[in-house]
Amino acid sequence: MPVAAQMVTDYEVITAPALVAPKAERAVLTEIAVAGERLVAVGDYGLILTRDQNIFPSQHVTNRLPFSNTF
């Protein structure tokens, strides 16, 4: 059975999930994409929002990457 390789970096790897932003719907978003009937938007600090077509409000998604996202 193969042993998983350990990643070596020159920086500290943060393993904590991003915080839930209470005003996520008002945050600056950097990218938006269509995924079937769903819109997926990402922003700074690991923010991910999804919205199904014709359904409000948007849903804040828990993200394990606490930094800026792009598609």
From TrEMBL:
Top-level division of the source organism's lineage: Bacteria
Instruction: Output this protein's name.
Output: BNR domain-containing protein
